[in-house]
Design a protein that fits this description.
Helix content: 25-40%
Mean pLDDT: 78
Number of helices: 3
CATH architecture: Alpha-beta prism
Low-confidence stretches: 1-12, 143-147
Distance between the termini: 27 Å
Number of domains: 1
Order of helices and strands: EEHEEEHEHE
Length: 147
């Protein structure tokens, strides 16, 4: 669980043209990140699926509150945090993110790096968040149901 304190953010329209590879762990983590950002910013997300090459995200008002993302794989919770943090910082009140997935995924920041290096660095810029690690998960492929 991650709790984040906010500010405010102007609405902008984005059109993303991305290829989500899949169906493997990288595709799922990218898809979950897009869905989490869309949820945080009350966005209209179109075309977001594994294998998609044209994704459109039209953000609305950034919402504070509780937001959950579950990769259902060993996909990195740290990458989900990196996607969600900029939006959560601009909400009008505190937010709580419940991120489920891998804490030590390959080719992604490790949870210990996030807590011991990233968190203190962003705190120097006034960003405050708490990180409550409920359970550590092994790295992929051992815990990946898509393998």
């Amino acid at each position: 669980m991650v709790t984040i304190n906010p500010n405010s953010f102007p609405d902008k329209k984005l059109r993303l043209i991305i290829t989500i590879n899949g169906p493997d762990i990288r595709g799922y983590i990218h898809l979950m990140g897009l869905q989490l950002v869309s949820d945080l910013c009350s966005g209209g997300l179109q075309g977001a699926s594994i294998g998609s090459t044209d994704i459109s995200l039209t953000p609305g008002k950034i919402r504070s509150g509780n937001h959950t993302a579950d990769t259902q794989t060993a996909g990195s919770v740290c990458l989900l945090l990196q996607a969600a943090l900029p939006c959560a910082l601009y909400a009008d009140a505190s937010s709580q993110l419940c991120l489920k997935g891998g804490t030590n995924a390959e080719m992604a920041p490790q949870i210990d790096y996030t807590v011991k290096v990233f968190k203190p660095m962003v705190e120097r810029f006034g960003v405050r968040f708490d990180c409550d690690i409920r359970m550590r998960s092994p790295s992929w492929p051992e815990s990946c149901p898509t393998k």
